[in-house]
Amino acid sequence: MMITATIEGHKMSELQLKDLYDGFRNPEVIKGFAKLIEKEAKKLPHPINIMEVCGGHTHSIMKFGLLQLLPNNINFIHGPGCPVCIMPKERIDHAYILAELEDTILVTLGDMIKVPGSRGSLQDARAKGADVRFIYSPLDTLKIAEENLEKKIIFFAIGFETTTPMTTALIDIVLKRQVKNIFFHINHVTVPEVMVELIDSRDEHVDSYNNRIDAFLGPSHVSVITGSKIYEKFPKEYNRPVVVAGFEPVDVMEAILMIVKQFNEGRCELEIEYKRLVTHDGNLKAQALIENYFEKASLFKWRGLGNVPESGYKLRPQFADIDAERVYADILPCEEIEDHKLCICGDILRGMAKPDECTIFGTACKPQTPLGSCMVSSEGACAAYYKYGNLLK
After folding, report:
1. What is the average pLDDT across 48-55?
2. 195-to-104, 140, 217, 350, 355 alpha-carbon distances in Å
């Protein structure tokens, strides 16, 4: 992809898209940070475990071989930052059931196609004749609705704070234009609450106090929307430093160095490495839009983690007429469904195990035939290990 700029009538030289990120993938810069980290790591009083919450960070770490550049006393724990991976079977079944309804089109983002529920995946539903459509932008739903006025269009919304404003923007347009055939099944989740769950679970059946997390690498794009303020509690209340980092390898390496320095200097703070896009307050307009249409659900079930208090959104009561969970409540089951007995995605999402420790990893469970949620999405930890695992050898 090339970008051409014109200033005062003069055509500027074409700018390659790669020119915008090459500096953040420069091998010499990455190696330079590796040397600085190695030097600082020798001063660490004990080994440290850093959880990268976001699946985008997991793939950068694996793709660019960053684990091989780090000393043995710095370890990464792969967190639950993949919205597809954490979607429980119950909600996949909701999508499947809604897709089977007569004169209905189920619309969702592409990553959802292969996620298995107890009845099968949306790919299976489509193969059986259901009208399931995968889109790149929630706003594409409007065109589908306009072209199918006699049908009900159900948008199955997923994602963290990054994609939540896009759903609320669609809701805003639907209500203002008085579009009558679009409904919403909301599955948006939030990051801070699950971070708390990982280190201080309120579930008596979860021994979160044996977690191995010493610090967090804060998500990039989530933080652009929310601002860094959502992580302030972790250094103050839980004694876990947080550094918000970009996705590029140079970003990740600089953030690691910042975390190591905090330990060596006896600090526990919230810092921003990704300053070119993340601010303290974030995108206030996007936050206002979310606040206008959504409220927190008392509980939201995360696949492999269980019910996490106030970690998901739902439509406010005044928008019940477009809320698919309310409109179709009589046909949507509420019973909890267990994951595959051999799958250890729950332990992986909690940082208690690595993907290659699973007995079905790379055999019964592959990206083409996923049994566990972490293998389904391109952002999942198991998918990253499957694709880039040769770099660990």
Report:
1. 93
2. 37, 32, 11, 10, 20
